[in-house]
Design goal:
- The complex is a heterodimer of chains A (about 400) and B (about 260).
- Chain A is α/β, with parallel strands linked by helices and about 400 residues long.
- Chain A has 2 domains: about 160 residues, Rossmann fold (3-Layer(aba) Sandwich); about 220 residues, Rossmann fold (3-Layer(aba) Sandwich).
- In chain A, the strands form 3 sheets. Chain A has a 6-stranded mixed beta sheet with strand order 3-4-14-9-10-13, sandwiched between helices.
- Chain A starts with a strand and ends in a 7-residue tail after the last helix.
- With about 260 residues, chain B is an alpha/beta fold.
- Chain B contains 12 helices and 9 strands.
- In chain B, strands 5-4-3-2-1-9-8-7-6 form a 9-stranded parallel beta sheet.
- In chain B, α8 links the parallel β6 and β7.
- In chain B, α3 crosses α11.
- Chain B is globular and about 45 Å long.
- Classes of the chains: A alpha/beta (about 400), B alpha/beta (about 260).
- At the A-B interface, β2, α1, α8 and β11 of A face α3, α5 and β6 of B.
């Protein structure tokens, strides 16, 4: 079915947006096969974002953990410090092709907001970012960063004042003003064509990684691992390995204080099927279908749903999803810093934490790739806080 | 003839909205009966939802008040039953899709029928995704009411052809909420609908004053007022009944 991954996905949005979403769908169908568009996109990825990103052999970690050779796909080295730039460059370029002059976006920790503000500055688009008030306080530096890039930042005071509410408010804003405005959704969520389109723009991660690993190892990895909130870096990491049946695809979701507590964001482990934010997929929700408040130390994984492509990959058994707690993620964050000298995003540390558990299951002749989706400068104070260390920013 | 059809017979129809359970379920029953006494023809009851993406600030706050007072979808059916003990006024539920999906379509619409619900409006269920829900609703005799927006254009024909109960024409872009000016060319939209269907047309979103209500009633079959009534509840809380009565009577008088 059009715009579906199995039964998941769809276009569950207000009538006011339907013509707009159909226009976007049609435009994207055209431009994704347009040589000119792809040439411009490639150029931006290479010359502006700094692609291809490195596939780094983590030799010390490999020795220390024992088992598989560990490779890190270094999305943290992209311009703006995360994989988010891949998607925003694609969507902002598309915005120009649509003849629109303004972009709006939601952001949790601020990585997608900063990336969107960056691409908007580069491409000459007006930019407004919606961010939960709680998150604007937790990530004050990123608010200022977006403002320096010329964006206007709105602190969202509705609901739980976090990422889900930022998405609600950005959707509301889009229904007010569609004629000149494109909504740059930051993950593989929302109504069709967003999940597929964002996944396409992010698939550069696995396209490069697959070529890179074949070049250095001469064979495919045994597994690839990525963290999952909405799931954009994970779709990016999985896509080009999806047909390689012997490569395990592993997503790590935020278990917060534990999946047996109420404070987690483990959608696959604890969620149920639902329909919200334009899509049918799994959501953390209560017995009456109210969307749950979710929690993670990582603002980027703090989302009650998961992209419909992941819901499908889970159901057909092609990908596996495992919960990782705050405690495990913070441990992995510190371990990676100490062992390899890399301060990664706390989101990405959820993937590292699972790798640390399973590396031993593999032989030294095998390899595993972890997507290091972002860098961790933004998280240093949160980690200090977690460890009870007081620092002056 | 259904209760909804009856409400549009030989008159301009006033549709009043409240969020169910704001500030409590028993108060909602009282406010609904006050609206009926003041001349309201149809009542729309919002099932409170954690994330009402089509609502402006006034109704968002009502959703939070209702959820905080412990309102669940089951209590809304209880509310409907209580109104039905005293009144035959047509009742239309407004709900986001997830609570309906979560309860199961069969179960939900069975409850609608047994409690006495006449219609349902689901703002995040556009025409293309509505077949499954529509079939179950029809089986249980509940009208799935469609929305038409200022941006609907060539979609109007398709939506009008399949419409049930009445058509809800959204007056403005954006979300619900009181507006001082409404610029959409409603007459053209109504004309487009009339090419395909003679279903009753009600205009909603942003209407609060007698002047606005009279103007839109003159180009359509009825008007829907939500945020202006919910604002009265926000202001007066449990004592809102008499104020709602006076407000609705004032609007109905100019239709």
């Amino acid at each position: 079915m059009k715009g579906r991954f199995g039964e998941y996905g769809g276009q569950y949005i207000p009538e006011t947006l339907m013509n707009e979403i159909h226009a976007l769908e049609k435009a994207y169908e055209f431009y994704k096969n347009d040589d000119e568009f792809n040439k411009e996109f490639d150029k931006l990825l290479k010359e502006y974002a700094g692609r291809p990103s490195l596939l780094y052999y983590a030799e010390k970690m490999t020795r220390d953990l024992g088992g598989a050779k560990i490779y890190l796909k270094r999305e943290d080295l992209n311009h703006t410090g995360s994989h988010k730039i891949n998607n925003v460059l694609g969507q902002c370029l598309l915005t120009k092709k649509l003849g629109k002059t303004r972009v709006i976006a939601e952001t949790g920790a601020g990585q997608h907001g900063v990336a969107t503000a960056t691409a908007a500055a580069l491409l000459g688009l007006e930019c407004e970012i919606f961010m939960g008030k709680t998150d604007t306080e937790r990530q004050a530096l990123n608010v200022f960063r977006m403002e320096m890039l010329g964006a206007k930042v709105h602190a969202v005071t509705s609901g739980t004042m976090t990422l889900k509410d930022a998405v609600n408010e950005t959707m509301r804003e889009w229904t007010k003003r569609v004629h000149d405005t494109h909504y740059v959704l930051g993950s593989v969520v929302g109504p069709h064509p967003f999940p597929g389109m964002v996944g396409d723009f992010q698939s550069i991660i696995s396209k490069e990684a697959r070529e890179q690993i074949l070049e250095v190892e001469g064979k495919l990895p045994k597994a690839v691992i990525a963290c999952v909130g909405g799931g954009s870096n994970a779709v990016g990491m999985f896509r080009c390995f999806a047909d390689d049946k012997d490569v395990r695809l592993i997503g790590t979701e935020a278990a917060g204080k534990g999946i047996d507590t109420l404070e987690h964001a483990a959608t696959i482990a604890k969620g149920e099927k639902g329909i919200f934010h334009g899509m049918k997929t799994y959501f953390c929700q209560d017995e009456f279908g109210q969307i749950a408040e979710v929690y993670s130390i990582s603002a980027g994984l703090d989302y009650p749903g998961i992209g419909p492509e992941h819901a499908y990959l889970n159901d057909i058994g092609r990908a596996e999803y495992v919960p990782v707690t705050d405690e495990e993620a913070v441990g992995a964050f510190e371990y990676l810093a100490r062992t390899e000298g890399i301060i990664c995003a706390i989101e990405s540390a959820h993937a590292i934490a699972h790798l640390m558990k399973i590396a031993k299951e593999f032989d030294r002749s095998d390899s595993v790739i972890v997507c290091l989706s972002g860098r961790g400068d933004k998280d240093v104070s949160a980690i200090a806080n977690y460890r009870g260390v007081k620092i002056n920013e | 003839m259904s209760r909804i059809n009856n409400a549009f017979k030989n008159q301009k129809t006033f549709i009043g909205f409240i969020t169910g359970g704001d500030p409590g379920v028993d108060k909602s029953v009282e406010f609904i009966l006050e609206m009926e006494r003041a001349g309201a023809d149809i009542i729309e009851i919002g099932i409170p939802f954690s994330d009402p993406i089509a609502e402006g600030e006034v109704i968002q706050a009502a959703n939070i008040r209702a959820l905080n007072s412990g309102t669940t979808v089951h209590k809304i059916f209880g509310l409907v039953r209580k109104v039905r003990e005293k009144s035959e006024i047509p009742l239309v539920l407004l709900t986001y899709l997830n609570p309906v999906y979560h309860m199961g379509y069969q179960n939900f619409f069975e409850q609608c029928r047994s409690s006495g619900v006449d219609g349902i409006i689901i703002p995040d269920l556009p025409f293309e995704e509505s077949r499954e829900v529509g079939e179950v609703a029809e089986k249980y005799g509940v009208d799935l009411i469609s929305l038409i927006a200022p941006t609907s254009k060539e979609r109007i024909e398709m939506i009008s052809r399949e419409s049930r109960g009445f058509l809800y024409v959204v007056s403005s872009m954006g979300v619900t909420g009181v507006r001082s000016e409404i610029e959409t060319d409603i007459e053209t939209i109504v004309r487009e609908i009339r090419k395909t269907s003679d279903i009753p047309v009600a205009i909603g979103f942003g209407i609060s004053t007698q002047e606005q209500a009279a103007k839109f009633a003159s180009v359509a079959d009825g008007v829907i007022v939500g945020s202006a009534i919910v604002r009265i509840i926000a202001e007066h809380g449990e004592d809102a009944g008499q104020y709602i009565y006076e407000y609705v009577r004032g609007i109905k008088a100019v239709l």
